[in-house]
Inverse folding.
């Protein structure tokens, strides 16, 4: 369609600002702001269609409509694959197929063209804080106060820079203690505990001395804990995107359709939700949004159900969001704004590409550390095999030796170890006894080193690997903001060239540009904080790992020197005691370092170091082009529970229901 076309409005008010219209015999969706009524209208007769219960709108005295509406044309607008998020992201990298730009859908275009339909004169700026939702019924005065606080929370201020002016200090959020619950209506679901930690400002945290002259401890942070399920997070994210259309909000983790109650998935989901909330409250203006306050502060289940419909019914802010943005006059230069967005866009794409490479390399580092731990363990077993003359398991060693074989083996071992357990053919050889004990301590130290390396790869590095998701795909996150910025610049330059002066429309363009450039500044600040934190976390983890390794190796080394060496003699410490790892030697696979489960169970050996579970990878980012754990993986695990799929031997394997049949 183009300007001046006549259209027939079939349904004026649809969600998210759309209207259903008829143009030349085709019905489709267009933004409600794209058309205006040029004559008086009245409600026409109801359509004779089972699928439509709404009335049409047409001119007075028009011919009554008695036919069914034209078929909907496939315009390919909006998200066409709600039920296939992984499929969409696999093919498109998470990109939206909405053919209308964010400049239109956010309300920025309507604001630039027409301003706000409501009066933008608001209350004087105050700074409301996060507070606990009232659990008792308030009177009318309380409702008025709450309404004023809500109005004040929707005012956003820009300082010179441009940069957002925060009203509240940052605070921390913990998502913890997930628990499984059941409902007759919705079935089973997982509930997470969300704790908000509000620390006092620095000037209030100054240590004061009491009467005895001792400094008083710093005050404990205030805590508010609530319980929320994933559908509540969906509500929060939906409400934020509708009420704050001009800012870049982090994406919400995807809904899981299979395997959502497994321990690994619940922990991954808990971490993703915690990172999501902390990124929301890090934003200078999102942290004091009314819906965020409600989500984090409403502790009463009754109050939650009472106020939830109000937040769900709030319409999209649209141009009203920009009407409530206040900034200094002449706060930006057009040439600078043009150059900044191009540089910002190129920078985001480079950061995204580099982070994707970094995530891949970090995954390789974790697997390499697991491999190193495996060989450290094999080296330890090899040392024990050497000093005890006990061979490691072979691929053919799958049955327990007979009594005759054991007796023959014991006879053939004569001279390999003396009666004190020393690695020597001589009896009462104190030097060899010391050497054997020192080498045994070395082998045990290497087992401890392997444990440290494996724990670092599984736990410490997993946290850093997960944190890299926070800084991944910045270009996709800020693409709507960049689109709005460029479109507004185009309108601004066009208005200046046409009128040669600054009028109300160009002033509204400046408001939008202040908003977008404040978002650029927010990313600049958060990028510095994020990469500094990730680098320090990695360095601290490496320092702690190597410090612990050095401590164990130094202790093993000391066994070869006085006075520890003298303490290993038979006179001071007696004969050699067998290492707890010696029982593993007949079951150690020299290729993989794993223990044979069958022989371990038959011989009563240790089973704690049986076949180790595979290294857990981080859950995929919402915008990853190739999902790291598709639904098919969860289905495969479900099959493994019944049939003992060899792909998951550590979880099911021989203990499955139909293991033998499989």
């Amino acid at each position: 369609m183009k300007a001046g076309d006549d259209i027939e409005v079939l349904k004026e008010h649809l969600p998210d600002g759309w209207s259903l219209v008829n143009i030349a015999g085709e019905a489709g969706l267009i933004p409600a702001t794209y058309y205006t009524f040029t004559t008086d209208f009245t409600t026409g007769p109801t359509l004779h269609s089972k699928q439509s219960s709404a009335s049409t709108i047409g001119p007075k005295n028009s011919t009554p409509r008695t036919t069914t509406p034209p078929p909907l044309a496939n315009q390919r607008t909006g998200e066409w694959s709600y039920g296939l998020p992984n499929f969409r992201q696999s093919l498109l990298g998470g990109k939206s197929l909405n053919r209308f730009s964010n400049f239109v859908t956010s309300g920025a275009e309507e604001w630039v063209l027409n301003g706000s339909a409501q009066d933008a004169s608001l209350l004087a700026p105050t700074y409301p804080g996060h507070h606990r939702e009232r659990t008792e019924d308030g009177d009318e005065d309380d409702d008025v106060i709450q309404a004023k606080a809500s109005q004040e929370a929707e005012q956003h201020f820009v300082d010179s820079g441009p940069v957002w002016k925060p009203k509240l200090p940052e605070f921390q959020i913990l998502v913890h203690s997930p628990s499984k619950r059941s409902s007759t209506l919705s079935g089973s679901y997982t509930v997470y505990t969300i704790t908000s930690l509000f620390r006092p400002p620095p000037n209030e945290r100054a240590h004061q001395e009491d009467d005895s002259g001792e400094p008083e401890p710093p005050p404990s942070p205030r805590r508010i804990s609530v319980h929320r399920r994933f559908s509540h997070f969906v509500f929060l994210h939906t409400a934020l995107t509708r009420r704050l259309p001009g800012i870049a909000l982090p994406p919400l983790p995807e809904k899981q359709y299979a395997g959502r109650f497994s321990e690994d998935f619940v922990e991954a989901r808990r971490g993703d939700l915690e990172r999501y909330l902390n990124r929301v409250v890090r934003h200078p203006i999102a942290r004091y949004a009314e819906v965020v306050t409600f989500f984090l502060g409403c502790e009463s289940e009754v109050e939650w159900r009472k106020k939830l419909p109000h937040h769900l019914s709030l319409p999209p802010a649209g141009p009203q969001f920009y009407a409530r943005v206040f900034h200094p006059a002449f706060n930006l230069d057009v040439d600078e704004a043009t150059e900044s967005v191009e540089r910002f866009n190129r920078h985001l794409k480079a950061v995204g590409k580099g982070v994707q490479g970094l995530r891949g390399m970090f995954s390789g580092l974790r697997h390499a550390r697991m491999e190193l731990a495996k060989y450290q363990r094999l080296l330890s077993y090899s040392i024990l095999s050497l000093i005890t003359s006990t061979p490691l398991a072979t691929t053919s060693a799958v049955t327990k030796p007979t009594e005759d074989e054991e007796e023959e083996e014991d006879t053939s071992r004569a001279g390999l170890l003396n009666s004190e357990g020393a690695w020597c053919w001589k009896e009462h050889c104190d030097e060899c006894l010391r050497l054997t004990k020192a080498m045994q301590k070395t082998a045990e130290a290497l087992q401890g080193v392997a444990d440290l390396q494996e724990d670092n790869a599984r736990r410490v590095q997993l946290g850093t690997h997960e944190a890299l998701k926070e800084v991944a795909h910045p270009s996709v996150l800020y693409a709507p903001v960049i689109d709005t910025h460029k479109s507004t610049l185009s309108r601004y330059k066009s208005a200046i060239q046409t009128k040669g002066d600054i009028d109300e429309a160009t002033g509204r363009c400046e408001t939008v540009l202040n908003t977008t450039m404040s978002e650029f500044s927010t990313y600049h600040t958060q990028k510095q904080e994020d990469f500094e934190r990730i680098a320090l976390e990695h360095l601290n983890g490496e320092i702690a790992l190597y410090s612990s390794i050095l401590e164990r190796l130094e202790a093993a080394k000391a066994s070869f020197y006085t006075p520890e060496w003298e303490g290993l003699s038979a006179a001071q410490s007696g004969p050699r005691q067998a290492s707890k790892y010696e029982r593993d030697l007949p079951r150690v696979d020299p290729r993989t370092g794993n223990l044979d489960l069958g022989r371990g169970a038959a011989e009563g050996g240790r089973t704690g170091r049986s076949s180790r579970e595979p290294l857990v990878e981080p859950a995929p980012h919402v915008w990853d082009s190739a999902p790291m754990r598709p639904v098919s993986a969860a289905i495969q695990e479900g099959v493994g529970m019944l049939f003992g799929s060899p792909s998951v031997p550590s979880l099911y394997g021989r203990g499955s229901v139909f293991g033998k049949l499989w």
Notes: Residues 490 and 509 are 10 Å apart (CA to CA). DSSP finds 18 helices and eleven strands in the chain.
